[in-house]
Amino acid sequence: MYTVSNSNFEDILIIDGFTEPVRSTTLFCPRNVDAIVIQLVEDGTYVNEGDIVCVLEDVDTQEVYDRLYVELENTKAELNKTKADIESEYAILEAQVKNNQAETLIAQLDSLQLIYATPSQKRIKELELKKVAIEKTKYEKKLQSLAIIQQSEIRKIELRIQQQLIRIQTIKDQLNSLTLKAPCKGLATRPVYRLTGKKLQIGDNVWNNMPVVVIPEMAKMKVKILAPERDYKSINVGDSVYYTFDAMPENISWGKILTKSPVGQPYKEGSKVKIFEIEASIDSTLIMPDPGFTASCHIVLKQIKDTIVIPQIAVFEEDSIKVVYVKKNSGYEMRQILQGISSSKNVIIAAGLQRDEVISLSKPKVSLIKEKVLLPDSITKSSVSHYPPLEGAGGGIK
Within 10 A of 70 (CB to CB), how many other CB atoms are there? Predict the structure, then answer.
């Protein structure tokens, strides 16, 4: 039996969700990197600024660094060899210049004896002096051109070394970026790994801009709900929510639905069942939950205060009308009712029942049903569009 009374009607949908920070600092895998996680902070570890929270290993990048370093050493050796060759060539040329200078002096001394020489001897000596002068000019020009060539070849190799140093520094910076340090103090958490749907683990492969560590700001949290399509359609932005937590039985929080993702995702690979992501706020709470806590989300789809509400199981269908069985002395009265909005558990009665009447939650035996009462046509044919029902909606029904 159930005694009819006025109460608040609530259509509440309960779905699990989990808490996550509204704002957080996320550390990502560096760009242009395909790496393996070889060291990772334990989930929920408190870290200070500068602490190492993750170390990645990129074999390809390390191989490139080693190859470039060998190339740099070879280029430096080539530069040293080129300088040595040029110095040797320069020394030979300087020796030739000095030799030419000596020959010039000798030829000039010989020219003093030309006054005693025959005309043919004079002619030979003059030609020898010209030859020495020509060779001197040639050596001087060769020295000048050698200096230019020397500077050009050395400069070319030095530029190549600079380019190699820049490339090596770039790769070295990239390798250094594989060691990730906490930019601030806080509670470090592992993100969900997109390939497994579980927390990131040592040995997992990460690449370009994938999150590897999340440090949340603990002051403000929100709740992420993954709703099946049927429930998703019932939920609206702005609906009130209150939360309970298995890990904190004494705690309760309140908030509202903030956003609904318009696109669903498969429940699991190959599944046709879709789930939709919903975000809800935590506007007030007894104790702020930590990130990752499972929350039981009580979403209030509809709420009407101070109205006649009865359990769904007390409503029966007879001859295409909705009825309840009202207790009358030693029997029951089958009475037609007019329903308002309902939930999976309760229903609002717009007409047909009064407060303090007692109804049966199960269908009585036929022998116990003493009377059948219908609602007036004026009530059944009009559309009820206001809630809660007017006081005394159950009167005048016989």
Answer: 10
Contact 147, 250 (CB under 8 A): no
Fold of the domain spanning 24-58+178-216: OB fold (Dihydrolipoamide Acetyltransferase, E2P) (2.40.50)
296 DSSP β-pair partners: 16, 244
Report residue 396: phi and psi, to 5°: 60, 50
The CATH number of 307-380 is which of 3.10.180.10, 2.40.420.20, 1.10.620.20, 3.30.160.20?
A: 2.40.420.20
Cα–Cα distance for residue pair 246/252, rounded to 1 Å = 11
Structure tokens of 60?
């390809």
DSSP letter at 200 equals -
Please tell me whether the overall predicted TM-score, pTM, comes out greater than 0.70 for this model. no
Give CA–CA dist 197/270, Å, rounded. 14
Q: Which residues pair with 177 in a beta bridge?
A: none
Would you give per-residue pLDDT tens digits along the chain (398 residues)? 888 888 877 788 899 999 988 888 999 999 888 899 999 999 889 899 999 999 999 988 889 889 998 999 999 998 888 888 777 776 776 666 677 666 666 666 655 555 666 677 666 666 766 776 677 777 667 766 766 777 778 888 889 999 999 999 988 988 999 999 999 888 898 988 878 878 899 999 998 889 999 998 878 899 999 888 888 888 999 999 999 998 899 999 999 999 998 888 877 666 777 889 999 999 999 999 888 889 999 998 887 888 888 888 989 988 888 888 988 888 888 988 888 888 778 888 888 888 888 888 988 888 888 888 888 877 766 644 444 443 333 443 33
Single-letter amino acid code for the residue at 84: A
Distance CA 127, CA 107 (A): 10
Query: Rounded to an integer, what distance in angstroms lies between the CA atom of residue 171 and that of residue 169?
Result: 5
Question: Among 1.20.120, 1.10.287, 1.10.150, 3.40.50, what is the CATH number of 60-171?
Answer: 1.10.287
Q: 129: Cβ–Cβ under 8 A, 6 or more apart, which residues?
A: 104, 107, 108, 111
Tokens of 37: 């996680």
